[in-house]
Amino acid sequence: MSDKIVITAALPYANGDIHIGHLLEYIQTDIFVRFQKLIGKDALYICASDMHGTPIEINAKKVGVSPEKFVEKYWKEHQKDFASFLINFDNFHKTHSTENKELAIYFFNELKKKGHIYQKKIPVIYCEHDQRSLPDRLVRGTCPHCKTVDQYGDICENCNSALKGLDLIDPRCIMCGNSPVEKESEHYFFKLGSFSNKLKKWIKSANIQPEIKNWLDGWLKKGLDDWCISRDAPYFGFEIPDAKKETGEKKYFYVWLDAPIGYISSTKNYCDKKKIDWKDYWYKGKSYHIIGKDIVYFHFLFWPAMLLGVGIPLPDLTVHGFITVDGQKMSKSRGTFFTAKEFLKLFPAEALRFYYASHLDRKVVDVDLQFTDFQAVNNNVLTGNLGNFCYRVLTFAEKNYGKITKVADESNKDKLFSEIKTSYEQLDFKTAVKNILAIADLGNAYFQKAEPWKNNEEAEAAVGWCVNLAKNLAIVVSPILPEFSEKVFKALSLKKTGWDDLDFKWKGKLKKVEKLVEKIEKIPEEEQFPLQMMVGEIVEVKDHPNADSLYLLNVDFGNVKKQVVAGLKKYKKPEELLKQKAVFCVNLKPAKLRGEKSEAMILVADDEKDVALLQHAKAKKGDEVKFGELVNSSKEITFDDFLKLKMVVKKGKIVYDGKVLNVHKHEISVSGVKEGSRVR
């Protein structure tokens, strides 16, 4: 084995903007690559745009451009976004490339020659409305394993089961919404199941996270299905040579066949430009993949089996969780979905790099970006501890001495530096950050104890030691904070540094240090909807004793019952309301209406002639009802506050500020009232 290392992050799909959820992985990988280079390894950060597949073909058609032009736009934009967060690829190539086509065909032919690929006729999903076969990503339905609704036909996002579109319960075409039919088509299959024993042996011996091993053991125990690696036309991808002759129709490589090959083809593209052999990295060196937990099946089973089939050594894989924001999935309606560009307008890139690093280890857990915590980590920890020590020491030394000629003979904290190195090697950045901060704490305490402002001459050696500690901190934190470190190195006129430069020998002239860290003054506030809306079941309907037009409703919300006074008598008979599940506002200030207490309010669409209850067949009592993903407020409101809200009927839906009322993402429909009717 050589010192040559290839490190990859998953290939971003050229079908949309890079957002802060994506950035977690590319920052994590960038830190690991920078560390490997820092300790002297010949490490390459390799990536590419994943450019093939039906979603790209469909979306390109929507905007009226060719798929090639569509993906080229994102290929350029993604590189700018990554660079703005200091993510430094050695090569960022494309899966729609000459190198990738050649290697995809090579893999296919090699696997076929060795008997790992065969043909058979299978039923496929066909949309009669759109007159085309539907790849798995164009079909949505209910997962047959965990019964989660609205899942794509390739993998369930809830239970991570690998699927085929035909497996889904109640499948529908995502383009037209119609139910597809089955047709027969001849396709190519990869014998994934025949690699089970080799995969088991590898999984047992490899450095795989325990959570992932459990998933893999479960999948292997169930048995691995052979994998369909071809797709029918129309398809944006590489055509399979001789497929028309062998099957009677044009066939294309499934995107998941050629996408991971993109890791190798991007390496080849880099090596060809440098006039070196890519095989020195993939056959003789070591490869690492850092990926999200949503693509574990493909990267731990399909891809290793393909590599085993062609004789390429298997990679070392690390899996991370997702990004949540303030404990929930990112949401545009709540104001917690940020593209890379949007986030950079609000906050410095290194603030996010430091925050992610301080939460990342090899556990497969989600990283929660809590904005109050994010602000505190940046201002109190990064700025107040590490930034404060380095800036304070370098500014004091430059102002009072100009140059360092003496360095105190103190412990150089070898143990902590060694632990930081081990943490980086294990992708435990959380512990690395903890120890970096511990060293900065020691430096701050030492500087404070030396009191150089009282006696400059006696304290010069102590200040010299602190300057060297700042240099060392800049070295060990450079994988996480490259710009921060570069500013320190610039103040010391250091052009190139490595792990071997961790010493207390630096002497020389100081330059004025730039400001190292920016404080965060303001954070985004979550957008909320003033009402707390909930499904309640009407279990009793009585006449109001003191008002001819009012009912008294006894409503069951699952864990509590409330009395509701409702002015529905002229619209609905008691039997039309009894046992109905409807939407109620439950944070309205309780009031007495004609002597009877009303603890909530039933919401109806009202056109002044008729009313419609707000209902959905799948709603259960106690379910939360929302507009889009707006967060409901639990703060008590008055009836006057309620009247200010403009909730109206549009095309049979209830809409507020462009967002549709839903329960568990099922949109609530109404009928029998006019367009534009208000909700009251």
How are the secondary structure elements laid out?
Layout: E1 4-9, H1 20-38, E2 42-49, H2 54-62, H3 67-84, E3 91-94, H4 98-113, E4 117-127, E5 132-133, E6 139-142, E7 151-152, E8 169-173, E9 181-190, H5 196-205, H6 210-222, E10 227-228, E11 230-232, H7 243-247, E12 251-253, H8 255-274, H9 279-282, E13 286-292, H10 296-310, E14 316-320, E15 323-325, H11 340-346, H12 349-357, E16 367-369, H13 371-400, E17 403-404, H14 414-425, H15 429-450, H16 456-477, H17 482-491, E18 508-509, E19 528-529, E20 533-543, E21 551-556, E22 561-566, H18 574-577, E23 581-585, E24 591-593, E25 596-598, E26 601-602, E27 604-606, E28 611-613, E29 624-627, E30 631-632, H19 639-643, E31 648-650, E32 653-656, E33 659-663, E34 666-667, E35 678-679
Parallel strand pairs: 1-2, 1-13, 2-3, 13-14, 15-16, 19-30
Antiparallel strand pairs: 4-5, 4-9, 6-7, 6-8, 9-10, 11-12, 17-18, 20-21, 20-23, 20-29, 21-22, 23-26, 24-25, 27-28, 27-35, 29-33, 31-32, 32-33, 33-34
Description:
With 680 residues, this protein is of the alpha+beta class. 37% of the residues lie in helices and 22% in strands. The chain is built from 19 helices and 35 strands. Helix 5 packs antiparallel against helix 6 (210-222) and helix 14 (414-425) packs antiparallel against helix 15. It is flat and about 95 Å long.
